[in-house]
Amino acid sequence: MTDSAPSVAADERRAIALIFTAVLIDSIGFGIIIPVLPTYLSTLADVPLQEATRIAGWLMVVFAVLQFLCGPLLGNLSDQFGRRPVLLLSMAGFGLNYLLMGLAPDLVWLFIGRALAGVAGAIYAPANAYMADISPPEKRAQRFGMLGAAFGLGFILGPALGGLIGSIDARAPFFLAAALAFANAGIGYFVLRESLPIERRRAFDWRRANPLGAFRALARHPTVIGVAFAIFLWQLAFHVYPSTWSFFAALKFGWGEAMIGLSLASSGLLMAIVQGGMTGRIVRAFGERRAAFYGFASFISACLLYTIIPYGWMAFLVQPIAAGQGVGGAAMQAIASQRTSAEEQGELQGGIASLNGLGAIVGPLAMTQTLAWFSEPTRGAPFYGAAFLLAAALALAAAAIFERTTRSDRSMALPRRAPPV
Length: 421
Hints:
By secondary structure, the chain is an all-alpha fold.
């Protein structure tokens, strides 16, 4: 007994480190291409920056449609066959996506690459399910926050690298992202252990492995479906960053790849500090519910400030305020996970991934088209902050739904105390 307990703890720490690293490498690959998108799309399609903004929106929509359709499929597959094979396929699929995007001779191949990435389903749903498998309920918010911190750290290294090498060749970041994704899959193949034991798996069911079936599964838990819908609106609003920041900064502040990369790296560093070092403390002190409202307040305040600031250097002053927004997503994920059985964690994460995919269909399209519309020179004085104003409104709606859904749940009104050692 004495010998086995340290061994179990060591295995758990190793698994957490591996999943953290997998998400980190994946987010580096995602962030590395953001600074070059304005130049890359403008050159490849031979269009002005405003039109490239619209193309970027449709590029993200293709990814999101296929992720929406395939998210529940992958989540249910992970409930039957385990998390490990789904994670590895996601990593390899993203490597192929970046390779195709880097080699793309025209927009058609670019869209094919993003479609493949949507089918792969990204890494976050199976990674969250893996983390839920190995974490007791009272630690899930903290560990979901760690995954958010990994994403933030990826946004330190990714955009910085993308801005640096993208100023030399706009295609180079795509090839580096492909190499990182394939390396991620290779490392995972040799060192990642399965987190879902055979006795906790359930049979695959096509009726549950689709968006409609996933939504019906979520609807079995009233609190879960309400929180999931709040997460959907939250993600819808959050798409203002990956879909428009590069174009927003280029249009409003006249920034190039290097400054865009620096701003994203700075934002990622601050978010990683808050999510990795403070999420657990905030949840223990105030409970998941109040922690979620802290995230809402941070996001809405930052969006409103980005809307009105006149100079680029002011964006760096807003970033410390924005850094707290990731706490909200981790807290809501923890609430939904705690109210779902161990056998349904993959289905839950697949359902949330499908909702996020639906949000990613509407979000980038709405944000990029809003920015393009209000920045069009023929419409008079441009209003570059319009997309951030829209994002603030969506986050406010998410907060209202979350408040109404969780108001009567007394278990969320109290601080989450750590169990005695």
